[in-house]
Amino acid sequence: MFCGDRASSREDAWPLWLLKHVSGARPGIVLAERGGRPIGSWQAVRPGVRVKCVCRECNNGWMSQLENRVKPVVEILLDELPVSLDLQAQTILAAWAVKTAMVFEALGTKRVWFYSNSERKFLRDQLQVPLRTGVWIAKCVDPPAAYCSATQLRGDTPSVDGDVCTYATTMSFGPLAIQVITTRMPDEVPVDTRVTADVRVGPWDLVALPVWPSQSRATAWPPTVGLAGEMGLSALSDRLNPGGGEANSGSGLAGA
User: Fold this and answer.
1) Higher pLDDT residue, 110 or 142?
2) What is the pLDDT of residues 147-206, one digit of tens each?
3) What average pLDDT does the structure give for the chain?
4) Backbone torsion region of residue 146, taken as left when φ is above 0, otherwise alpha when ψ lies between -120 and 50, otherwise beta
5) Residue 16 pLDDT > 60, yes or no?
6) CB 174 within 8 A of CB 21
7) Is 99 a residue whose pLDDT tops 80?
8) C-alpha–C-alpha distance, residues 16 and 12, integer Å
9) Secondary structure of 172-232 in the HEC alphabet?
10) What are phi and psi for residue 129, nearest 5 degrees?
């Protein structure tokens, strides 16, 4: 999916080193939903979910190198101790989060992916995050071992010229939640045009800490408000749905 060659290698959609950190690599139950409806559950004989979407050269090359570079950054966040993420840490975390969001797309049934061939290629060649992408991190309280939700917020066919499309991927690994949101605008919209979105009412500035576009000052971790379990993760996934009602402590947010 990143170079156009035949998919000859299986990639861990949830990085195995990360699952070992948050769950001790114990087998567990995998639950799957589509459109809010359960579509199945199964006992995992090994932790994680693998998908055949990349070639061996990508998997063992730049993707492995990216995992090694982000590992110390993520492990510091998982320790839940006060820490500041500098510009370099923010940049590598954002690139890794987008790579993971792209791999998650391969788990779906749609043949047309949101992220384009050129966006995946630029990430592979230059670790370049797609235009109009935001990446945030949040703290989970009483979290599941791993979680992922992907939502097409606006527009159904990202390949149609003139369409406005927004795609959000929300994932968590133990106490760390990450959200990647990318918006694609028509070609005639200037690159430097500011894009804004309505969000559900809630203390999101206290919950979700921006790491991309990279911040000029260090990002202080952890935030003062956390996400309570799967309900909190669902609230984060749904925060760009302004008709979803008000987010408060009764709908998945809790003091961290």
Assistant:
1) 142
2) 888 888 765 555 455 678 889 999 998 899 999 999 988 888 898 888 888 888 889 999
3) 83
4) beta
5) yes
6) yes
7) yes
8) 7
9) EECCEEEEEEEEECCCCCCCCCCCCCCCCCCCHHHHCEEEECCCCCCEEECCCEEEEHHHH
10) -75, 140
Rounded to two decimals, the pTM is 0.86
Residue 125 CA, chain-centre distance (Å), reads 20
Q: Give the DSSP H or E segment for 35.
A: none
246 token code pair: 């008000």
pLDDT of residue 22: 73
| Token pair belonging to 103 | 């791999």
3 backbone φψ class: left, alpha, beta (φ>0; ψ -120 to 50): alpha
Residues 84, 141: Cα–Cα separation, whole Å: 20
Kindly report whether the peptide bond that precedes residue 38 is cis, defined as omega within 30 degrees of 0. Answer: no
Contacts of residues 105-109 at CB distance under 8 Å and 24 or more positions apart, as own/partner, are 105/1, 105/150, 106/1, 106/11, 106/13, 106/51, 106/53, 107/13, 107/49, 107/51, 108/150, 109/34
pLDDT of residue 70: 96
Q: Around Cβ 152, how many Cβ atoms within 10 Å?
A: 14
Q: Which helix (H) or strand (E) holds 101?
A: helix 87-105
Give pLDDT, residue 110. 66
The answer for residues whose C-beta is within 8 angstroms of residue 187's C-beta and 6 or more apart is 161
Q: Compute the distance between CA of residue 28 and CA of residue 42 in angstroms, rounded to an integer.
A: 9
- pLDDT of residue 37 exceeding 60, the answer is yes
CB 219 within 8 Å of CB 88: no
Task: Decide: 119 and 253 in contact? Cβ < 8 Å.
Answer: no
* Those residues with Cβ within 8 angstroms of residue 196's Cβ, 6 or more apart along the chain or in another chain: none
Which amino acid, 250? G
